[in-house]
Amino acid sequence: MSEMLLNTARQTLLLELAEASRLPERLGEDFLTAANALIHCQGKAIVSGIGKSGHIGKKIAATLASTGTPSFFVHAAEALHGDLGMIESRDVLLFISYSGSAKELELILPRLEERGVTLLAMTGKPLSPLALAAKAVLDISVEREACPMHLAPTSSTVNTLMLGDALAMAVMQARGFNEEDFARSHPAGALGARLLNRVHHLMRKDDVPHVRIDATVMDAMLELSRTGLGMVAICDQAEQIKGIFSDGDLRRWLVAGGTLAAPVSEAMTPGGFTLNAESRAIDAKEALMKRKIAAAPVVDDSGKLVGAINLQAFYQAGII
Fold it and tell me: How high is the pLDDT of residue 196?
């Protein structure tokens, strides 16, 4: 029994891979027409289908929507009971049907033609009513399904999914859609946290550790203890940073025989490393890691102290 299960699974995968391997050679003018229709669509990209095609269609619509092409799925049966009202002349409709002759099409196709909706077809039958009515036909035909009875849609649904992905990725690239665009449609995910957050979103704005340039080492040490970030910004009257005083600076100063009454300007690291408030959080975190420091003051574009941040703030925001 175990060997039979493994053999059937292997045969299924091999058959599906063999059918999918024929897809690249089918890409041509119709694919370009479909891609350009989506790129220049003034409305929404709408995906429709029924049965297994509908399930795959939902995924294709979701992929288009998350990669820069406003899109949603309409079930073919629901379209005949009111959802056709969602479709306008400026929209592009991608209809998926392997046979290209689903009964729903008899009523849907005339309505689409009346409204001047651009129709794209994904079908395995190039002479079907769907294919003949479409502006472009994406060929998902297979020589055989992976189903041992040659009945259940298997190889054909894999082809549909892959061709849908190919279309979405081509359109995404043509639009210049990038990582930050993707993150904006996934703000709750890890990618959103990495790419959308700026330093000013995560930094400590209140109780920022700092002392004036004329303070003593004692003053800076007390500020270190009070704020717990491991560093203190040393600022002039205009809040411009002149140096950084860290736990390490304190230890080195005391080991060298320095006194707590001495000016902090003698014990600080002049200049020091700062982060810009508008920097991407992921870039700021990597900068801290590269320099092997745990915290840094944050400045605005004029160099004025506006906050402070440590590595823990990045971890708490999911930026790992």
Answer: 72
CA distance 307 to 281: 14
Tell me what pLDDT residue 148 has: 85
Per DSSP, 7 falls in state: H
Residue with tokens 């930094």: 203
Instruction: Classify 201 as helix, strand or coil.
Output: helix
- In the block, tokens 């269609």 appear at 57
Q: Which of 272, 256, 258, 275 is nearest to 221 (CA)?
A: 258
pLDDT higher than threshold 80 for residue 188? no
Range name among 57-66, 179-188, 218-227 with the lowest pLDDT average? 179-188
For range 130-155, the mean pLDDT: 92
- pTM listed for this prediction: 0.70
User: CA-CA distance, 204 to 309, in Å (whole number)?
Assistant: 6
Q: Which of 151, 42, 29 has the alpha carbon at shortest distance from 88? A: 42
**The predicted structure's pLDDT at residue 66:** 85
Give me 160's structure tokens: 């549909």
Tell me if 171 sits within 8 A of 67, measured CB to CB. yes
List of long-range contacts for 10-19, beta carbons under 8 Å, 24+ apart: 11/146, 12/146, 12/154, 13/146, 15/144, 15/145, 15/146, 15/154, 15/155, 16/146, 16/154, 16/155, 16/158, 19/142, 19/143, 19/144, 19/146, 19/155, 19/156, 19/158, 19/159
pLDDT, position 181: 66
How many Å apart are CA 47 and CA 75, to the nearest integer? 8
Q: Which of 114, 109, 78, 116 is nearest to 95 (CA)?
A: 109
The two three-digit tokens of residue 297, written as one number: 């003051």
The residue behind tokens 């055989």 is: 144
